[in-house]
Amino acid sequence: MPQSYLSIEGIRKSFGSFTALEPIHIEIPRNEFVCLLGPSGCGKTTLLRMIAGLETPDIGRMLVEGRDITSLPSAKRNVGFMFQSYALFPNLTVAQNVAYGLREKKMSKPQIQSKVEEVLNMVDLLSSAKKYPAQLSGGQQQRVALARAIALSPDFLLLDEPLSALDAKVREKLRLEIRRLHEQLGMTTIMVTHDQEEALTMADTVVVMNNAKVIQSGMPEDIYERPNSRFVADFIGAVNFLEASDGREALAIRPEHVRISPIHEPGSYEARIESLEFRGSFYRVTMLVQGPSSRYFPNGIMADVNRSIVKQYQLEKNRRVYVQLPEEHLIHFGPTRPERLEVVG
Amino acid sequence: MRPAKWHTALTLKRRNGSLFERLAMLLLLAGLSVMILLPLFSLFSKAVTNKQGEYNGLDNFIDYFSTPALLNSLQHTVYVSLLTAVLSVFLGFLFAYALTRTNIPGKMFFKTVSLLMLFAPTMMVGIGLTYLFGNQGLITTGFFDALPLHWDIGLYGPTGIVIAEVLYTFPQACLILVVSLSFSDFNLYEAAKTMGAGKGRIFLTVTIPSVKYGLISSFFVCFTLAFTDFGAPQVVGGGYNVLATEIYKQVIGQQNMGMGATVGIILTLPAILAFIVDRFVTSRQHAVSARAVPYRITANRKRDGVFLSLCLIMAGMILLLIGTVFAASVIKIWPYNLAFSLKHYDFSKVAGGSLQPFWTSLRMSAWTALIGTVVTFVGAYLIEKTKTFPVLRQAGYFLSILPLALPGIVLGLSYIFFFNKESNPMHGIYGTIWILVLANIAHFYSVAFVTATSALKKLDREIETASDSLGVPRYKTLLRVTIPLCLPAVLEMAMYFFINSMVTVSAVMFLYAADLKLASVSIVNMEDAGDIAPAAAMSALIVLTNIGIRLLYEAITHQIKKRTHAWQTREH
Ligand SMILES: Nc1ncnc2c1ncn2[C@@H]1O[C@H](COP(=O)(O)OP(=O)(O)O)[C@@H](O)[C@H]1O
Ligand SMILES: [Mg+2]
């Protein structure tokens, strides 16, 4: 376990009688790329804003390398914050926006100038320096906001859903760009997103949140392969749940691990194909389990199946097939409890 | 863990904004209290004292309601105000409908003409009517006997008051209804059509419901304006007593302050009602859904013809009225010698005395515009954009919109009672131009405040936090980003303060000192003394000044739009 750089110790926040964040504990190592992932309204932005010093926690504290920064104002925290709305100043040019914070530092005009150029160069916008935000496309505005956030060479880069307003193509490109900047500048980056694919592809560490709480944190592979709860399993990727009888362990399995065969094998369940959904490189096959075992799969079962296999077995609607759930891919959650996590407020 | 107490103190400090912001907020509240709350309190305490200044409970009110002459003025006021409101809303609706739902030519022209009335003091409407329908009026005498047709409408009294008030309030109704009619969803019309509804049914089931709140709100605005107006009844009221002229008589004529205050409170009741209705209506007025389709005007010659004639008649009335006043101001002796002359613009021989009142009005309006705009904008900014204690912000908001419910006359009275007290440390401003400026700022505060607030609401909510995260002090961002973005609204506020300060008479007529007479007040005095032509001349000066200011505003706004074209948000 690498040494913690930012420690969040029992931070809690409420707005009036509404609790936006239950006491939160997170440790973040230096130079990590962390994604805060969770459904809308679960408190991600609130947490990010508290790290930035834009909101004050009710209780708890935040340490950077052991130094208490809980009551440090935003300006003194050396963070770059990128707002969900970008919050570019519409009456200032791209260059003026980027220089906005630099002008507060003891820097000469030429120094500011060269810093602005350097940063705009990084996001490939030098040629738009004299334009106003409204004259740029959404993706370009996003990069201006990014440039403004990194202009002050922050220790922390905080990004609030930086890609959510963009279309798919631009989004993909900017993912790589943000990741590249993170590595190039050696910052600690914390990014908020509600897009699980974004989190899995970009992050070193994913922190999954729901209902004002952290549910699980870890490397993307761990979170995906070993979710600690139904909520995480369901929120990240597709999943089949096996209904356990009372007190027994709850289980789940990812559709890509479900195996289909046209003939019966030991330990396989008989099922009938309900639908086949074309997904490009594979088909998602939805089946209803037949016989007494069907009570374990009240919602049916999904399997992601290669196109070649679909051809080979001639899978089609109403075909009878046999389903296998390999032991090594079963996800264990421990005994089922009353589902606190899924109560969506 | 640190001790919890230590944290709480820090938390409290930062959550409620910087020390500077909180001080500014407290200062604002103190200012608003001095400007509005404390004077009102004086008015209420005056209403329960007798002539000798002793407490007499509700005696004044009992007195009021048992004196037939006084009670009469209440009945009169309700009668003319109701009639005015009905007529104004009706005409305003037709006019607004013509501007938004028909294809008549010259919409710009009609809009401009309807707004002209906002540049004139209400006395001017009365003066114009006198020249048209008075004893020596153009129409009463059939163009000085040139025509065989003589038509005496019996101007002086309720007829004159209602005509004057309709002309004065109709632009306000029109403004409100144009806005209501512009926000509509064409989908609803098409849906109604596909279900086979006829024109009349569509009008009743789609159009009217969609402007329901506009109709209610314009009715109350017109009613309140007519209820509290002093200028028009003063000029064309004849012996027909209304509340506003009654207060004037009680206070200036009989020096009966207690009764003046009592009538003042009665005068405020419909305004308070209107205020409550307006709050209610504003909260109910749902935004049109994002998928709404703007109204598409269908071709219909007959409809356009009818509405065009209607607009021409109304615009003609307004232009005739203003034109008559201008003409009368440059005619030697109406109606005997119609030669051109500028002698009425030499005010040295009449009740007003000189051109001095005009300059005083200019000076006062300029100060009001300058100080009023700064104070109102900062006030709106503090309330809208800072994180100071929510209770303080709410109190600030309430005090900021409270003046909407205060008729000018009541504000003026409250100011005498409050600032004329020897014990008041601010007694010094009594009799100076500053009490006039203060009264005007208070009088027109709410509308300017709403303008500033809605401009601020349109800005990105994160501008201040972005500034924090970039380590830039908020006041710098206010100066460098927020104010430049709100410049059009700031100019609109300044123009609003200026124009209204030029035309108002109700708030200031109790407050001016002998050497600080105002243009609008001098119109009342000259008219009272029978110097009608000079009164017309002074009215003309005010209107011309206001048109000038409006043109200046348009020119500057145009320049700003051109310069800031690049940062106006565009659709992508
Ligand atoms: N300033 C605020 N006042 C009141 N409620 C707030 C405020 N900011 C956030 N909330 C509430 O806190 C909850 C969490 O908000 P947020 O952190 O923005 O969620 P997320 O970013 O995960 O979508 C939401 O229910 C939101 O309505
Ligand atoms: Mg958010």
Plain-language structure description:
The complex is a heterodimer of chains A (345) and B (572). Chain A is of the alpha+beta class. Chain A contains nine helices and 18 strands. Chain A has a six-stranded mixed β-sheet with strand order 6-7-8-3-9-10, sandwiched between helices. In chain A, strands 13-17-14-15-16 form a five-stranded antiparallel β-sheet. In chain A, α3 (109-122) crosses α4. Chain A is elongated, with a radius of gyration of 24 Å. By secondary structure, chain B is mostly helical. Chain B has two domains: 15-46 and 348-572, Orthogonal Bundle (MetI-like fold), CATH 1.10.3720; 54-341, MetI-like (MetI-like fold). Helix content of chain B is 71%, strand content 1%. Chain B has 23 helices and two strands. The longest helix of chain B has 34 residues, at 68-101. The radius of gyration of chain B is 26 Å and the shape is globular. Chain B starts with a helix and ends in a 9-residue tail after the last helix. Chain A binds chain B through residues 9-10, 49, 52-54, 56-59, 61, 68, 70-71, 73-76, 79-81, 83, 85, 87, 89-92, 100-101, 103-105, 131-135, 137-138, 148, 152, and chain B through 1-2, 4, 7, 10-11, 14-15, 460-463, 465-473, 477, 480-481, 484-485, 564, 566-570, 572. The site of adenosine-5'-diphosphate (ADP) has 11 residues of chain A, from β2 and α1.
